[in-house]
Amino acid sequence: MISPPQHMEIERRFLVKDDAFLSSHKGVEIIQGYLSVDVDKMVRVRKTPSQATLTVKSRTSSIRRRLEFEYPIPISDADQLLALPGVQYQIKKLRYELDHQGYCWEVDRFLELNAGLIIAEIELSEESDVFPSPPWLAAEITGDPRYLNVNLAQHPFKLWNQ
After folding, report:
1. Which member of 34, 71, 96, 147 is catalytic?
2. Number of structural domains found in the chain
3. Which residue segment(s) compose the domain that 81 sits in?
4. If I label 24, which of 36, 80, 91, 96 is the partner at 20 to 30 A Cα–Cα?
């Protein structure tokens, strides 16, 4: 596969219908906080037990394509940024990285107020790429803004029916 232009993220996202397959995998806990919650120009701090990043994403004309700039930062810096008063929008999740027929899938099992939600995403080289669908995929949610992490931080999944 040809790589997309540097800093271009092309992804598709899906709900997961059955997470039994995750029981044999180890997930990594992720905390994400948002310094900017504009879905067209988002700034995020992400922290795992072993690393932290600062990410800037900007939507292009496509629902599947975004500019993405991600930079490693010290974990102590991430802790300070996540503790800022303006960073009240945060999510926690467990991330599993899985291979399915040569394609890498990231499966996120959300925690706290987003518990019960499981999303799988795949990054592609081109929007037109065809990939084999794992049996645990459900509906595609790529174009549904409710499922963007930045929106889940502001409007958690468990509160959607209220």
Report:
1. 34
2. 1
3. 8-159
4. 91
